[in-house]
Structures are given as structure tokens and as C-alpha cells.
Amino acid sequence: MELGFSFNQTVFDIVPEAINSVRRAVDDGVVTFYDLDVRQETYQRIKHQQMLSERLSQQEIERFLAGKAYILGFLAADEPSEVWGADPWDAQYLGVTKKELLLATRILRANGLVDPGSVTEYMRPSDKLLAEQASSNQEAEIFQPSQQLSRLSLPNKEVLLADMETVLNRRAVLALLVVDLDNFKTVNDALGHLEGDACLDRVVSTIGNVIGRRGKVYRWGGDEFAILLPDFSSEEAQATAERIRCAVEQEKPGGEIAVTTSIGVCASDRTDSKSVHEILHFAEKAMYESKRTGRNRVTVWPMSSNVSKVAHT
Questions:
Q1: Residues 6+ apart with CB under 8 A from 55
Q2: For every one of its 313 residues, what pLDDT tens digit does the chain have, with 9 covering 90 and above?
Q3: What structural domains and CATH numbers belong to the chain?
Q4: The three-state (H, E, C) secondary structure of the chain, written as one string
Q5: In b/e form, how buried is each residue of 220-239, taking b as 16+ CB within 10 angstroms?
């Protein structure tokens, strides 16, 4: 990358400037993201981006900070957490002063959109901000924070397909995880259906603890589940699937019987198809590949470019 640093700059000057140059390049659409499996012989040169030619209004700064609080303080965490509002990196990126960021933070607090953090420069998203963001999203009716996670209350396959259509009709990418339990039949046969139901509830609760409010769990019969993750890339979905696999294995929902998960992943950024049925079909094929190659694994579509992960405790 060509960023135009001088030799008298310290690392504390260079790192924020480098990151903000990339942020601006992404904003301007001059950065192309390549498949991780593709080896690039030549790399892009990102010219140093100048500061914004027009200063942002106070309202635009407030909108930026509110969005940051919502994304980093809510969507990126299992529960609302603190965000540094008056971040010098953001000041450089926006071309504003730290004082303007602090003023915007105070205005957001006065309007009830963010709550105070542990110190003056920190903030956390308020219930009002979460409600306003939810009402502006088409997924508001899909992802209810109060979704009751039990085997009896999970929506079925038809609801899943409708929710996928809603997300894809928006603009977003999505990822779908298909989860099948390993050795669940042994629990039913050896311990009875009551213990089998309890095992399912423990699995559902464990999955819910991993995905938090970032996705939704579905069930269609027996011991098979699906998880819809809007705005997740294939890599992010694979990491989430691996966390689910590890969490279920460590939870030991089947007691002495080793109930684990075989998981298939398909994200819309790895397939040209925008058909919800095909995406589901691909995720199921990846799940069956996990079953076929040893169980307690995560397999990502397309399977030709993916190495299945063997379980590690």
C-alpha cells in the first residue's frame, strides 16, 4: 500500500493513519476483497486519501457515533457494552476534532440514544437507540431479542425460508448453518425420551449463548437445527460454527453419551445462487459431509476449497 508516511512519524501516528486510509478506501469503493484461496501475484496500491473536502455537520457526526454505538456496543457483543465515543482515530477519519466528538456524545446522551459509560468518553447503546434501529431494519420482525430458546418454541423450516427471503431482498449477505446432533438416537434409546428432550433443550440453550442476538435458531424435526446469520461472511460464519461445535462438546448435553454436532455452513458470498432453497441445500450437503468424514466437524460450502475441521477440545 502506498500511504505516504514520513520517517519522523511514530508507530502511534502511522497505525491510525494506515487504518483510516483503508477505511476511506473501502468507503470510496477502491478496495477489492479477494477469496482467501486466491493467491494474488500483484497487490492493489491504495493512494493516500485526503481528508474530506467538506466538513461534517454536527448531525452527521451524531449519526456516525450512534451507528458506532449500535454496531460495536450491541451487534458485536452478546449484551450491550461500552464504546469509546471520543476516539481520536474516528476524529482523524471524519476530519473533525475530539471536542466535536464529545459534543456529539453529549447530545446523544441528552436525547436518550446512548447511556453514559464508566468514564466521560465512553458510552453504551440505550434501549431507545436499539428500538429506533430495530424499527428501521427490515429484520425487526425476524430477530426479536426475547426469542424463547427451547425445542418447543423454535420456528420451523417454512419460517426460516421466509426470513432468508427477507434478508436477501434487502441488500445483505447472509450465512446459514445446518446443525445435526451426533449420537442423539443413543440418548433416546438408552436413557429415554424425557432425557432426550432435556438434551435437546441443553443444545438449544448452548447455541443461543453463542450467537446471542446476532442470529436466529430454527428447528425442523428430530435433532436437526438451522441458524440464520444476516450480514455474516463465510469466514465469520465458519468461526461461529466452530464456537458452537466447541461449546456443545464442552457442555456434554448427553451426559456420559458424547452428543456432539456436525455442522454445514453456506454463506451467500460464496455462491452465485440467490435461491434460499439452494443455499439451504448447499448447507445441508456440507453438514452431510461433516457426518461422512467423522462427525463433530464444521464443513463449509463449497467443499472443494474447504478443509473440514476435526474436533479439538
A1: 95, 96
A2: 444 545 566 655 666 776 767 777 666 666 555 555 544 444 444 444 444 446 678 888 888 888 888 888 877 766 678 888 888 888 888 888 888 888 888 889 888 889 888 887 788 888 788 767 655 554 545 555 445 578 888 999 999 999 999 888 876 789 999 999 999 999 999 999 999 999 999 999 999 988 887 889 999 878 999 999 988 889 889 999 999 999 999 999 999 999 999 999 999 998 888 899 999 999 999 999 999 999 999 999 998 644 444 333 2
A3: 58-135 (1.10.10), 139-305 (3.30.70.270)
A4: CCCCCCCCCCHHHHHHHHHHHHHHHHHHCCCCCCCCCCCCCCCCCCCCCCCCCCCCCHHHHHHHHHHHHHHHHHHCCCCCCCEECCCHHHHHHHCCCHHHHHHHHHHHHHCCCEEECCCCCEEEECHHHHHHHHHHCHHHHCCCCCCCCCCCCCCCHHHHHHHHHHHHHCCCCEEEEEEEEECHHHHHHHHCHHHHHHHHHHHHHHHHHHHCCCCEEEECCCCEEEEEEECCCHHHHHHHHHHHHHHHHHHCCCCCCCCEEEEEEEEHHHCCCCCHHHHHHHHHHHHHHHHHCCCCCEEECCHHHCCCECCCC
A5: eeebbbbbbbbbbbbebbbe
